[in-house]
Amino acid sequence: MAGKIVVLVGLPGVGKTTVLNEVLKQAGERGIAVKNVNFGDVMFGIATSRGLAKSRDDVRKLRVETQASLQAEAAASISKMAAGASVIIDTHAIIKTPQGYWPGLPAHIVNALHPNHIAVVEAEPTVIQQRRAKDSGIRERQDDLDLQEIELSMLMNRAASMASAVLCGASVLFVRNEEGKAAEAASKIVPLLS
To answer: Which of 140, 60, 141, 130 is nearest to 102 (CA)?
Structure first.
């Protein structure tokens, strides 16, 4: 029996990685075999092999056409990895670029991946702002510390997730990641994998 494909999205600073680690832990405790694939890492690997980027943040600053090409190659690669296994794909529903918002899951990508579910991890905008400020030495995200920009990005993230789901018939689950409650958020996502 083929496994489920769950796409996990969330804005930088929402705590998606923390929730994802908890999802993998809880899935393992329940005996659910899950392969974790980071879409951005696959794109970054392709970009670095071509000399297009030296950091993950460089990828989002590439021309939109270049990002689209990298997305398509990454989706094809991930689709091969996902054959016959439960997979959780860590990615973004939107990417903020110098040219504006770019969909992380446009039609050709979401149709190549064909997920069963899209899980959207969210947090309060002020919490995201505080987390991003703490991560400022790790990631170059100073342009994303404005509260109004975070609120707009959250709105765009929700809209993009629903639009992607419409294209492939996936369900969309919105999960609130409250401070210190990643395990609780993860417990809502784990059932999607079985």
So the answer is: 60
First to last CA, the chain: 11
Six-digit token string for 55: 């950091």
- Per-residue pLDDT of 108-149, as tens digits, reads 999 989 999 999 999 999 999 998 888 766 555 555 678 999
Nearest Cα neighbor of 39 from 2, 4, 7, 5 is 7
CA distance 17 to 19: 5
DSSP assignment of 25-81 equals HHHHHTT---EEEEHHHHHHHHHHHTTS-SSHHHHHTS-HHHHHHHHHHHHHHHHHH
Q: How far apart are CA 41 and CA 92, in angstroms?
A: 12
CB atoms inside a 10 Å sphere around CB 84: 8
Whole-angstrom CA distances from 104 to 8, 126, 189 are: 11, 24, 20
- What's the pLDDT tens digit per position in 45-87? 999 999 999 998 898 888 888 988 998 999 988 887 767 668 9
